[in-house]
User: Fold Glyceraldehyde-3-phosphate dehydrogenase from Castilleja foliolosa.
Amino acid sequence: MRVTCLSIVTSMPENSLRANRSAQHIAMTMSVAASPFPLRRFSLEIKIGINGFGRIGRLVARVALQSDDVELVAVNDPYITTDYMTYMFKYDSVHGQWKKNELTVKDSKTLLFGDRTVSVFGMRNPEEIPWGEAGAEYVVESTGVFTDKEKAAAHIKGGAKKVVISAPSSNAPMFVVGVNEKEYKKDIDIVSNASCTTNCLAPLAKVLNDKFGIVEGLMTTVHSITATQKTVDGPSMKDWRGGRAASFNIIPSSTGAAKAVGKVLPALNGKLTGMAFRVPTVDVSVVDLTARLEKAATYDEIKAAIKQESETNLKGILGYTEDDVVSTDFIGDCRSSIFDAKAGIALNGKFVKVVSWYDNEWGYSNRVIDLIRHMASVA
Assistant:
């Protein structure tokens, strides 16, 4: 079967222009967005738990709760009560109110999503989270704290069978759906879903490298604000510029997203690096990849190659648009990377700049669930 990419399940206020633009765009993309790999029909739902109910944790929960083949059975977060968890889940400034089903608090340890029961824990130590008792086979580690294999392995001790880290990892195998997920083997228990930026860049780089060869490249991501930034100027000892007010500045920053492409595409190892600009927008980011090619090609040939892959092998992962779009047009887009044909440019046949958009929250959260689906399909 092919899994439809989940987008339209929430609703912004009807008088919101942003919501209207986003809804129009999502409606357009829904007809073409589907996961690129075939998945077996599961006789039972894939049961997942989420550790950390922040931006990604809550959105992964939204994706799971809309899915017929995935069941959210437990959430762990030691810092928020079930009442506040309900409020944070229901109301989202970017992605709108949750309207798929009624969300209620059954008691201090249980949430009800319609008739679905979700256990709530508040453990600081992952080893103590009773994933096994809750029935969670796959755990999404989305705290941003337990990102290496040794720390993430604590979830296995709590009864989970597999762990997906929703962040880059220093030593866990990294998989990007549409690029290298087929290399996953069933004996691998802990994996990383890489970063949202790597998920955007890798499919684009794969097409360029497969079709024309990449000699070397530099990436810049113009990235929306994230929760680690400061609302006003404050202390940030490791990154002084990162301590400046997020809503008032364009902030140069480091990123390992481009180098990480070499981990999922070994042919590009050592050929890419990059940096980031953090900008005062709340969601949607854009990758600018400037590359030197092995094989000369016109920009039209490059566009054609990307368009073909977006409609075939990478359908639902890599998108293509020739519209005059801006960032808010991609809020709620479930694809990893949407190539902007009008934004790129070529200096000559071997030196080209390509541009691709991504909803760094919603698109990435969809890929987390897609990776879990794939892992379950080979288990």
The chain has two domains: 10-194+363-377, 197-360. Residues 118 and 163 are 19 Å apart (CA to CA). Residues 10-194+363-377 form a domain with the Rossmann fold fold (CATH 3.40.50.720). The radius of gyration is 20 Å.
